[in-house]
């Protein structure tokens, strides 16, 4: 067999799994959209916000108005979907299916990224936190911006992590992808934290001017988008949503972020337990520090009256357990476990990945303090993506010494998805 033939076969083998993942997402999306099923909180958001905004852009084309819109998110997703569905005159169900391509591309990208894990079973376990998430599937089956924003951010992350120290063009390319993520969901400004930290660390041996230029190339495009949106909206959200979504601050965000992270990082911590152990004092300090806000602020998803998306594993569990003066002992315990597991996992990672993941979690927790809505869907997909990156790095280092905790995590994600997504879809058929 010739070298060219072998190269083609290797390329086909590499592309087969991502293509199959994308096909599976599209197949599920076409069944749901063709059946006219609009269910779950994602269906509510599609009908009330995203489809209305996409239709608005189609009707006023070629004029563009991103101020007087019926969505609280950035406009890029709606503009792209409108540009595709408008000329084709697609109905709501047809537009719903076309929008699934973002989730299909995200699935393909995640499978490609996990291709560095040589053992198939371990590769599947690395992908499970993200691709079995109910919020991934809601964004795949209905019109939501979550998968699109994560697609752009994860593409930038993959470039930064897989290609090593970036040159000027690579840094700018990653920066433009992050700008697209922020233009899709402005809360994805959190993604700048791990990107900037990684670029700064990768160029630690370069002169200061080079480091600064690389950081600017990564950060400036997204910051320009943020400044532009804030200038147009006179706030971090479109005018119609500023009173509802940004009226208060969520000082509980670091604690809630740690609690959601616990769902993913406690199993990962157990999977590597017995290798490198951090100092007990450091571990306990991080756990206590992240749990402390749960003892200070009341355990509420939001200060408002919006109940449609308060659910999710964490808040539903809190709702069925006792409160002490409005504070949840369960949230406190989960945040403590999350802090301890984060500390344990980070010391088992290589320095580059550890810095990236730590900066990502800090950036996410800090960003979500700006609004008043601590919904699991806003945290889970970013954390699941960081868990995927973590698992791939640990697998590459041979650090995973037991599989059963990761199997348990995959089963948990599958069960939650079955309850929150599959059951309503089946009931609607």
Automatic annotation (TrEMBL):
Entry protein name: Dolichyl-phosphate-mannose-protein mannosyltransferase
Going by the UniProt record, its keywords in alphabetical order are: Membrane, Transmembrane, Transmembrane helix
Disulfide bond as a keyword of this entry, yes or no, is no
Transmembrane segments in this chain: where?
Answer: 20-39, 97-115, 144-162, 213-233, 253-273, 280-298, 330-347, 354-375, 381-400, 407-426
Q: Note the superkingdom of the native organism.
A: Bacteria
| Naturally occurring in which organism (per UniProt) | Mycolicibacterium rufum
Asked if the record carries the keyword Coiled coil, the reply is no
């Amino acid at each position: 067999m010739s070298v060219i033939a072998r190269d083609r076969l290797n390329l086909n083998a590499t592309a087969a799994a991502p293509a199959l993942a994308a096909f599976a997402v599209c197949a599920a999306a076409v069944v749901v959209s063709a059946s006219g099923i609009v269910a779950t909180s994602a269906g509510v958001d599609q009908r009330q916000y995203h489809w209305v905004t996409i239709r608005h852009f189609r009707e006023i084309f070629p004029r563009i108005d991103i101020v007087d819109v019926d969505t609280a998110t950035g406009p890029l997703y709606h503009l792209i979907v409108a540009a595709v569905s408008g000329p084709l005159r697609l109905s709501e169900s047809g537009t719903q299916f076309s929008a699934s391509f973002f989730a299909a591309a995200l699935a393909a990208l995640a499978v490609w990224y996990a291709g560095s894990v040589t053992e198939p079973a371990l590769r599947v376990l690395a992908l499970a936190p993200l691709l079995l998430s109910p919020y991934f599937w809601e964004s795949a089956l209905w019109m939501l911006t979550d998968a699109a924003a994560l697609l752009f951010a994860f593409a930038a992350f993959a470039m930064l992590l897989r290609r090593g120290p970036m040159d000027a063009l690579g840094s700018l390319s990653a920066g433009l992808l992050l700008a697209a993520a922020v233009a899709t969901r402005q809360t994805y400004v959190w993604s700048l934290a791990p990107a900037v930290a990684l670029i700064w660390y990768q160029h630690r041996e370069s002169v200061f001017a080079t480091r600064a230029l690389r950081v600017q190339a990564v950060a400036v495009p997204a910051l320009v988008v943020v400044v532009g949106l804030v200038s147009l909206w006179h706030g971090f959200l479109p005018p119609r949503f500023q009173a509802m979504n940004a009226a208060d601050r969520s000082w509980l965000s670091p604690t809630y972020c740690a609690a959601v992270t616990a769902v993913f990082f406690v199993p990962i911590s157990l999977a590597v337990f017995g290798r490198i152990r951090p100092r007990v004092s450091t571990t306990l300090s991080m756990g206590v520090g992240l749990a402390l806000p749960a003892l200070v602020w009341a355990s509420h998803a939001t200060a408002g009256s919006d109940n449609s998306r308060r659910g999710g594993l964490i808040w539903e569990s809190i709702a069925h357990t006792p409160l002490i003066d409005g504070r949840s002992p369960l949230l406190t315990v989960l945040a403590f476990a999350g802090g301890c597991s984060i500390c344990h996992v980070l010391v088992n990672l290589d320095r580059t990945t550890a810095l990236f993941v730590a900066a990502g979690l800090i950036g996410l927790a800090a960003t979500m303090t700006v609004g008043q809505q601590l919904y699991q869907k806003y945290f889970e997909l970013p954390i699941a993506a960081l868990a995927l990156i973590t698992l791939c790095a640990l697998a590459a280092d041979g650090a995973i010494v037991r599989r059963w905790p990761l199997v348990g995590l995959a089963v948990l994600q599958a069960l939650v998805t079955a309850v929150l997504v599959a059951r309503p879809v089946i009931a609607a058929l």
